[in-house]
């Protein structure tokens, strides 16, 4: 039953669309890139709220720090106060999980399609630039590009155009302005790109193309959302003052 659902809802549309795009463009590599863009466009309604939630989380960080001091030693009260603060600002702390959960099955399905359909269809143009999309990159260039783009994406999402006055006061107060959550965030900013680059070393280049196209699309999308978010925040601040 699960196999039928998997093949019908996820795998079959990918096979059909990928083969059609390959015949249209004459390259399985270009087809994978176009398929990725189509998928990412479909995911826009899910990803934009996720990005906004991340930006709002950074904006209310000074308030979260205050809550930690107010409810020091009382984890339950601190957790409830945080949830109330999230609700007040319209933040869903788990908003980024759904796009990730939906992306993983597509990534797995694409890997299966590459290793079965693209390999078995005779005469299919699987070469793209220096790559064969059904085989790992022999020069390890693609994994490096994947890791680099992943790092840029994470750095972009964790950076803000300027530090607020409240944040500056907090930094002066504790001497560093870096708490445990920030340290973990910094570690993940380096660890995740390294992991994704390592994983794509042995995967078919088609998977790497999907990954890097997804990340580049996310970088552009994050840029637009961030600019709009900070512009609206600046206008609100000007009206408030």
In short:
The chain is an all-alpha fold. The protein has helices at residues 2-25, 28-42, 44-59, 61-70, 75-88, 97-120, 141-158, 165-174, 180-199, 205-240, and strands spanning 127-128, 131-132. Residues 29-226 form the Membrane insertase YidC/Oxa/ALB C-terminal domain.
Q: Any overview of this molecule?
A:
With 241 residues, the protein is mainly α. The protein has one domain. It contains 10 helices and 2 strands; from the N terminus they run H-H-H-H-H-H-E-E-H-H-H-H. It has helices spanning 2-25, 28-42, 44-59, 61-70, 75-88, 97-120, 141-158, 165-174, 180-199, 205-240, and strands spanning 127-128, 131-132. It has a two-stranded antiparallel ribbon. Helix 1 (2-25) crosses helix 6 and helix 7 packs antiparallel against helix 9 (180-199). The protein is elongated. Mean pLDDT is 81; it is low at 162-178.
Structural class: mainly alpha
Structural domains: how many = 1
Radius of gyration, in Å, reads 22 Å
This entry's quaternary arrangement is: single chain
Order of helices and strands: HHHHHHEEHHHH
Shape: elongated
Proportion of β residues? under 5%
Q: Which residues sit in consecutive blocks of at least 5 with pLDDT less than 50?
A: 162-178
Number of strands: 2
Please summarize the sheet with the most strands. Answer: 2 strands, antiparallel
Overall pLDDT: 81
Helix content: over 70%
The largest beta-sheet arranges its strands as 1-2
Number of helices: 10
Taking the alpha carbons of the first and last residues, their distance comes to 60 Å
Family: Belongs to the OXA1/ALB3/YidC family.
Membrane topology: Multi-pass membrane protein
Pfam families: 60KD_IMP
GO cellular component, one term: plasma membrane
């Amino acid at each position: 039953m699960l196999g039928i659902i998997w093949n019908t809802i996820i795998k079959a549309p990918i096979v059909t669309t990928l083969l059609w795009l390959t015949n249209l463009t004459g390259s399985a590599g270009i087809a994978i890139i176009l398929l990725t863009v189509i998928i990412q466009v479909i995911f826009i309604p899910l990803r934009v709220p996720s990005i906004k939630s991340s930006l709002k989380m950074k904006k209310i960080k000074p308030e979260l720090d205050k809550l930690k001091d107010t409810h020091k030693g009382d984890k339950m009260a601190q957790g409830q106060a945080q949830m109330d603060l999230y609700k007040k600002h319209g933040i869903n702390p788990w908003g980024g999980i759904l796009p990730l959960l939906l992306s993983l099955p597509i990534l797995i399905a694409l890997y299966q399609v590459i290793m079965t359909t693209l390999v078995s269809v005779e005469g299919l143009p699987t070469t793209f630039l220096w790559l064969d999309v059904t085989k790992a990159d022999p020069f390890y260039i693609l994994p490096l590009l994947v890791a680099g783009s992943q790092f840029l994406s994470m750095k972009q999402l964790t950076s803000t155009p300027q530090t607020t006055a409240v944040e500056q006061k907090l930094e002066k107060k504790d001497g560093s302005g870096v708490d445990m959550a920030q340290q973990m965030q910094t570690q993940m900013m380096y660890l995740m790109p390294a992991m994704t680059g390592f994983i794509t070393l042995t995967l078919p280049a088609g998977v790497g193309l999907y990954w890097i196209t997804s990340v580049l699309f996310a970088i552009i999308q994050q840029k637009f959302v961030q600019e709009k978010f900070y512009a609206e925040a600046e206008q609100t601040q000007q009206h408030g003052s």
